[in-house]
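S1.2 Input.
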Amino acid sequence: MDYRCARCHTKFAAAAEGEEALRCPECHAEAGLEPVQGIPTAMKLFGLFLGGAVVATAVAMFLARASVH
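S1.3 Output.
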């Protein structure tokens, strides 16, 4: 599992079981280490909605211009 340090924002992989305690390789912080997760589903859906709105606006503008001439 990958982690990101909240102090220096370094992304790193966790050490194997039985090795040194989980700590940042750059600043050696042991607290504030957050597991790296993928993009949440809600953010993906909002991006899809926003992208669709931009495409719909562009198509509507193109059709409005084409119908004027």
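S1.4 Remarks. The longest helix spans residues 41-68.
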